[in-house]
Design goal:
Elements: H1 2-16, H2 20-42, E1 46-49, E2 55-58, E3 63-72, E4 78-85, E5 91-94, E6 97-101, E7 106-114, E8 122-132, E9 139-148, E10 154-159, E11 164-166, E12 170-179, E13 185-193, E14 199-201, E15 205-208, E16 213-221, E17 230-240, E18 243-257, E19 272-279, H3 282-286, E20 292-302, E21 310-317, E22 331-337, E23 341-350, E24 360-371, E25 374-383, E26 390-400, E27 405-416, E28 420-432, E29 435-446, E30 449-461, E31 465-474, E32 485-497, E33 500-511, E34 523-537, E35 540-553, E36 561-575, E37 578-591, E38 596-612, E39 615-627, E40 633-648, E41 651-662
Length: 664
């Protein structure tokens, strides 16, 4: 401020030496310019209205469609451009492009996007922005929070097991454990051996991050004295430490032959997969756009007899994401790993923690290594999807405190876009009672400004009760993924009876937490939900739910305040290979400032039919009728079709078709 004042004084002394007429003209021009700028800033003609929930619960690999009302409040027609900012690895289906708005008119815009299959559990922000193509200062944005629900899914399979073993020799069989869910899990691992053959398993407990795989090795001693060939089986089981009811298992079978005959597997088998994909849509054909095709060659497996050294690679070409938003990017990746270290090159997804890197996808190099209870990880990459001019360097050190949990020290340095540095301390502990606690505190620095964030997550369950508690706070100048937000989320489930469950939830999210009047608003969103799930038979299930959603501006000059009530009913029918799901939703929204009422009815039917082990079809049809305060009705139909055909056990062909159509 002192510098600006001195400059003003210096310029004032220069102007005094000029003629008075010139000074009057200069003063008049300055006042007019200042007035025009103020008027222009105050009269932003673009307004975005959204009447749905500002916190949407979804599962990974889900398609979401959201409708926005975009209004032109000026008396002149506008040509505008819409943009949608999504988290890394989420795919836009439709919603970006140019459109015209008549004077004092509005238009409904639909956006659709696909939540990544690898999305970690937690909250994500999507930002919808509309700009005047002739004046970018005229713009409006709307933020919706997507809560990806925690999914527990573990898979196990036998890999690289020899076909034959000579009696009396020792053999090794390997099992691959993979976390296909989106939360960190700790597994208790055990094994059994047929004929009471002695064996040794290399681990009894494994921690798996989302999308991470690890090998379990079992070493078996065979009986030298057998007289005839027999088939020996090893079974490996894995249980989640805090949920003993969740169990996966796999078995391997080896032919033990007498010492009078020698036969064995002389080859190292390395699996390679070739995938071909096609992308396109009817609108593309009308607009003259050709369909896009993509090919992927990938492999992952052991490159030695004991399967101790693993090699993985992916080559996907060409880049089809640029073809009107369909398809995926090209990808080149190579990684080499053992039990104690891993090196990765090319396109890779690295994860630090929620308040630092969370999930970072880019092209570069990274690695990790383990030394007993200590582990280290580091990477350097150039972002491909979030912002192409951002380079990130990161490191992590962790220490295992045994069965109780782990402690992590994280560091992230971004250069280019969002140039900043973040350091955090995080940990996961299991105090018992089938409970997991995750906590993290972080401090970030950007342009010599320090600010902080912290987070707490608690998961717990037993046979009768489940709960999930999450709290997040990030200060306005914190340079991480979360910024200027205070969020609380609680969800619980109670098993009232064997076939009846009661669930409930509460969430609160605040933006502009310091109520800074320089911003357009300080939004507070609260959602209360409850419902019942009843499954009297294996082939039939019923779910009834109620949501109360409240949104309001906390600034003194309130810009908006509205509430909504939603009742939904879902039924599931399973008959042999056919699954049918029916949906009904009724929603009423009230604009409290303008006393306007909006209504919406949605009817939907989806079905999945497995015709055989090699062919399945999924059909989803949804009808929606929205009624505005003037009783105008907006009706639309959405359809989604997908099917998968297995030409062989390892060669699937999948087709996906998505369409929406307004009836009026």
């Amino acid at each position: 401020m002192v510098y600006l004042k001195d400059e003003f004084i210096k310029h004032a002394r220069i102007y005094i030496c000029l003629p008075k007429a010139f000074l009057k003209i200069l003063l008049l021009i300055t006042i007019l310019t200042f007035s025009i700028n103020i008027t222009k800033a105050q009269e932003n003609p673009i307004e975005i209205i959204y009447s749905g929930n500002d916190l949407i619960d979804v599962n990974p690999k889900t398609i979401i469609t959201i409708a926005f009302m975009v209004n032109n409040k000026s008396k002149q027609s506008l040509s505008v451009q819409s943009e949608l900012r999504l988290p890394s690895n989420w795919a836009l289906i439709t919603g970006e492009g140019s459109f015209d708005l008549g004077a004092e008119e509005g238009d409904i815009q639909l956006i659709s996007f696909h939540v990544s299959q690898s999305a970690l559990a937690g909250k994500y922000e999507i930002v919808y922005t509309v700009r005047d193509t002739k004046d970018y200062s005229n713009s409006a944005s709307y933020v919706i929070n997507i809560n990806v629900l925690p999914i527990t899914k573990i898979s196990i399979k036998a890999v690289d097991t020899p076909e034959y073993v000579i009696a009396g020799e020792m053999y090794r069989t390997n099992f691959m454990l993979r976390n296909d869910g989106n939360i960190l899990v700790t597994l208790d691992v055990s094994a059994t051996s047929a004929y009471n053959y002695p064996f040794r398993i290399d681990t009894s407990r494994i921690r798996l991050s989302p999308n991470e795989s690890k090998l379990v090795r079992v070493l078996v001693n065979t009986d030298r004295e057998i007289k005839a060939t027999l088939r020996h089986q090893v079974v490996v089981k894995a249980n989640i430490t805090w949920d003993k009811l969740y169990e996966v298992s796999a078995s391997s079978n080896v032919n033990i032959i007498s010492r009078t005959t020698k036969s064995g597997d002389l080859f190292i088998r390395y699996p390679i997969t070739l995938t071909s994909s096609g992308f396109g849509g009817i609108s593309d054909i009308k607009d003259g756009y050709a369909s896009a095709y993509q090919f992927e060659l990938s492999g992952d497996g052991g490159i030695d007899r004991d399967n101790e050294k693993q090699l993985g690679f992916v080559v996907r070409v060409p880049d089809t994401r640029k073809n009107k938003g369909y398809g995926t990017y090209d990808e080149y990746a190579l990684n080499f790993r053992t039990d104690s270290y891993k090196i990765a090159f090319g396109d890779e997804n690295f994860t630090l923690s929620d308040l630092t890197g969370r999930s970072s996808y880019g092209r570069g190099v990274g690695g990790e290594a383990s030394f007993g209870d200590f582990s280290m990880m580091a990477y350097h990459q150039k972002s491909r999807w979030a912002s192409s001019d951002r380079n990130s360097s990161a490191g992590q050190m962790s220490y295992s405190i045994g069965q109780k949990g782990d402690i992590y020290l994280n560091y992230l340095r971004n250069r280019g876009y969002n140039d900043a540095g973040i350091t955090s301390l995080s940990g996961q502990i299991s105090p018992g009672f089938n409970t997991i606690i995750n906590a993290e505190c972080a401090v970030g620095k950007k342009k010599d400004i320090y600010d902080y964030a912290y987070q707490l997550k608690i998961y717990g369950q037993n046979r009768r009760f489940q709960y999930n508690l999450s709290y997040l706070h990030a200060e306005p100048d914190y340079p991480g993924y979360y910024k200027d937000i205070d969020s609380l989320y609680l969800r619980s489930l109670i098993r009232l009876a064997t076939k009846l469950e009661l669930y409930g939830g509460f969430s609160q999210m605040k933006n502009n937490i310091e109520l800074n009047t320089k911003f357009y608003s300080a939004k507070q969103n609260r959602i209360y939900s409850t419902g019942l799930m009843y499954q009297p038979f294996k082939i039939f299930g019923l779910r009834v739910g109620y949501n109360y959603d409240e949104n309001k501006d906390m600034l003194p000059n309130m810009k908006f305040s509205y509430v909504s009530h939603e009742i939904s009913t879902t039924t599931n029918h399973n008959i042999n290979n056919l699954n049918i799901r029916a949906l009904f939703e009724y929603k009423k929204s009230i604009n409290l400032l303008e006393s306007k009422h909006y209504k919406s009815n949605t009817y939907g039917v989806s079905s999945y039919y497995m015709l055989s082990n090699r062919f399945g079809v999924n059909v989803d049809v949804k009808y929606q009728n929205d009624v505005d305060p003037d009783s105008n009705s907006f009706r639309k139909i959405q359809t989604y079709l997908s099917n998968t055909v297995y030409l062989s056990k390892k060669i699937p062909i999948s087709i996906y078709v998505y369409n929406y159509h307004y009836l009026n």
